[in-house]
Amino acid sequence: SVGEYGRAYFLAFLARQILSPRALLPALVAYRDDAVKFLHAVRVATVYLLFTQVASGLFLFVNAPEIVAFYLGSQWSHVAPLLRVLVFAPFLDIFLVVGGEVLRARFQDRRWLGAILLNVAPLVFFGVIFAACSAPLGMAWANLCLVGNLVMAWHVTKLFGRQTKDLAIDMLLLYLVPGVLF
User: Mean pLDDT across the stretch 50-56?
Assistant: First the structure.
């Protein structure tokens, strides 16, 4: 079960492993005192990272059996439903990833760490409960119940105030438009 979950998790988060948000940090540090440039850097990075996550996630969702067969072999075909659940976790994790870079650039590491810790508790709690019901598939569902991502979204919204509206519209479009295409 742990091996199945680990391999599906690796595939679901593959796009983020390739396109690291760490490259955003130098720009955020450079623009830390210029609110307009700072917000634009965050918006561009969020849109770029979210687009790659959504596009790759939906591709993995639609082609899960073929991807699993290619990457793991046909004997692992039972992992495809697990992958189909896990591909949605990076969609929600975008808040923690980009928000973490934003808070670190503003020397607010403790808030970022707090959000990470808030993600651990529901992951363990729901992971144990859901895994008892449906083993690795339950562990995958637990990844969609992370409270720290919501807290991080709130921190970013609080930092940018009304200017968050444009980013929220961009993100909504990135969630909806590819979904219609797939």
Answer: 84
What is the residue type of 164? T
State phi, psi for 20 to the nearest 5 degrees: -75, 135
DSSP single-letter state for residue 162: G
Helices 35-62, 147-160: crossing angle, 10 deg rounding: 150
Confidence of residue 148 (pLDDT cuts 50, 70, 90): confident
Residues 135, 81 contacting (CB under 8 angstroms): no
Give the Cα separation of 3 and 132 in Å (integer).
Answer: 16
| 3-state SS class at 32 | coil
Q: Give me the pLDDT at residue 65, please.
A: 93
The span from the CA of 65 to the CA of 77, in Å, is 6
Residue 94 has pLDDT above 90, yes or no: no
